[in-house]
Amino acid sequence: MAVVPISPDRQRLPAWFKRSLPDHGTSAETNAIVRSHGLVTVCEEATCPNRQECWSKKAATFMLMGDTCTRTCTFCDVKYARVPPPLDPTEPQRLADAVGELGLRFVVVTSVNRDDLPGHGASHFAATIAALRKRDSALLIEVLTPDFCGDAAAISTVVTARPDVYNHNLETIPRLYPTVRPQAKYQRSLDLLKSVKAQDPTILTKSGIMVGLGETDDEVRHLMDDLVAHNVDIFTIGQYLRPSLEHHDIIRFVTPEQFSIYETWGKAAGFKYVASGPYVRSSYFAEEVMAGAIAMPGKR
Asked: Tell me: the pLDDT tens digits for 141-200?
């Protein structure tokens, strides 16, 4: 296991995290469009370190159903409430209008968990996909959904709307679920991914994790095998960065060399595409990741 000792305050990033960022010009333009349509992005709510880079390319990951989640994952910066505000039925169209204004060819749409709702908000995903398709039939759409509490009808609702990529993140290895994802179930997430592929084999399936939460490299490798066994096409893996001192501790910083090893393991396991690196997030360069997976049709 490639490990870098963590300083006592757990805040100092290793040297390989230093990088040049683009200026704020186009990023500010993206911000203005998002604001003008009253939308929420995971880029902001989850305090993503790639926000400026992605927004400078007009790539934002839109977050449906508000900015408040019904779960308490210890790695996440999205705020919590047992019963968040009701859904806004105008949101799908507002999101489609923003995508048109941004001129996107590829869009990623995610959401908070809404365990308080009938169907867990799956119909809102479907309505958003329909609005996007109506505006631009050539648009490529990736959804990153919650587990919908394993509700088969909810999963089918999203699959039937036919996104191009269906992403659902495992986030971490099974041993850490009780402390990292206390309301989630590892096998339930695997079953969701397998169900998507069984219902529509043309949809690319995708999942990702963060490292640095306390997992071992052997556990990461076993997780990859689990995903491949459940017919997942694309795997993403990046370094966990703590949003604040109140969140789950950073247990280790994984070196770029070890991320290269993860990529080798993932390719050998049978994924169509592996994105592995310190700054990788599930939606990071999502369009390029999808293109890479499509370019390997005979992989599995």
From this structure: 999 999 999 999 999 999 999 999 999 999 999 999 999 999 999 999 999 999 999 999
CB 233 within 8 A of CB 273: yes
Predicted structure pTM score:
0.92
Q: At CB < 8 A and 24+ separation, what contacts does 173-177 make?
A: 173/209, 173/215, 173/219, 173/220, 173/222, 173/223, 174/223, 175/215, 175/219, 176/213, 176/214, 176/215
Q: How many CA atoms lie within 13 A of 291 on its CB side?
A: 6
- Identify the three-state secondary structure at position 68: strand
Q: Where do the DSSP E strands lie in the chain?
A: 61-64, 68-69, 79-80, 106-111, 140-144, 165-167, 204-211, 234-239, 273-276
User: In angstroms, rounded to a whole number, what is the distance separating the alpha carbons of residues 46 and 151?
Assistant: 25
Q: pLDDT tens-digit profile of 6-36?
A: 544 555 789 887 776 656 556 788 888 888 9
Kindly tell me the sign of the dihedral angle through the C-alpha atoms of 51, 282, 246, 252.
negative
Burial of 176 (0-12, 13-18, 19+ CB in 10 A): buried
> Which of the following CATH numbers is that of domain 41-294: 3.40.50.11690, 1.10.375.10, 3.20.20.70, 3.90.850.10?
3.20.20.70
Q: Distance between CA 61 and CA 51 in Å, rounded?
A: 9
Q: Within a 10 A sphere around the Cβ of 11, how many other Cβ atoms?
A: 11
**What angle, rounded to 10 degrees, do the helices at 25-36 and 91-102 form?**
150
In one-letter notation, the amino acid at residue 110 is: T
